[in-house]
Specification:
alpha+beta, 3-stranded antiparallel sheet
């Protein structure tokens, strides 16, 4: 019996894999979270409430889910020199999971294959979702006019963001890493300290920092309609009905 995942479950597991993939990319031998996510998904697909079991027990259900993405088998046949089938990747990861060798080159290969599995499953999980709210990144980190430039810079570096949204003059805008770089001008000493400690609203009033008017979209908007329009590729601010509250951020990367 196949378990049909709800939209909320799909988004939950998509985000679980994304987070695990980011962890693995930061450390080439850090595959643990990816395998745990895979086991957790398998447990859910089999409708089990007990502790997670071995990957081998979940293959049928997970491969069934993966088949919703053409990346699972179709692309691996069309471009076999570049892609491995999902079934083969799964077998490799299962065998490697059961092996006693989990260090060095062996661990790095395991991590790489687990990342490839994650990418396919993320695509499969979202294959039937069609609205902005299904793909946007929630809990967006925003800038505020009263914050110093040093804090905005810190948030960008901590989170690897290229843009921060800010609400200014009753409209949403984007502050880019490039704009902050231009504003700081690679100064040093007292001048750098002065520029970093200045509040965002002061830099805007003085015309020292450029911000870009952001495109906004409602969470129920359909992705296909969005892509048919004149989207410039910059992050979209997903906003509430009155447009004053930001619900999430959508970038082209989120739709890949």
């Amino acid at each position: 019996m196949s378990i049909i995942l709800s939209c909320e479950q799909k988004i939950y597991f998509r985000d679980l894999f994304r987070q695990a993939r980011a962890t693995a990319l930061s450390n080439a031998e850090n595959y643990g979270e990816l395998l745990f996510s895979l086991e957790k998904l398998g447990n859910c697909l089999r409708g089990e409430t007990s502790a997670v079991g071995s990957l081998g027990n979940y293959k049928e259900k997970i491969c069934e889910l993966a088949s919703k993405s053409c990346l699972a088998e179709g692309i691996s046949k069309d471009c076999s020199e570049f892609h491995t089938s999902f079934s083969s990747l799964y077998d490799y990861v299962t065998d490697a999971r059961n092996s006693v060798m989990h260090e060095g080159a062996f661990a790095r290969h395991l991590t790489q294959h687990a990342i490839e599995i994650s990418i396919i499953l993320e695509d499969a999980l979202m294959s039937e979702e069609k609205q902005v709210k299904d793909f946007m990144v929630r809990n967006a980190v925003c800038a505020a006019l009263w914050q110093p430039i040093s804090f905005l810079r810190q948030n960008m570096l901590l989170n690897s963001y290229s843009y921060l949204p800010v609400f200014n003059e009753n409209q949403w805008h984007l502050i880019s890493d490039f704009a902050i770089t231009k504003y700081l001008k690679r100064t040093e000493g007292k001048e750098k300290r002065r520029r970093l400690s200045r509040k965002l609203e002061d830099t805007l009033e003085l015309g020292q920092l450029e911000i870009t008017l952001a495109e906004t979209v409602k969470p129920e908007y359909f992705i296909n309609e969005l892509l048919k329009g004149n989207w410039n590729g910059l992050p979209l601010c997903v906003v509430s009905e009155n447009s004053t509250e930001i619900i999430g951020i959508l970038t082209p990367f989120d739709l890949l």
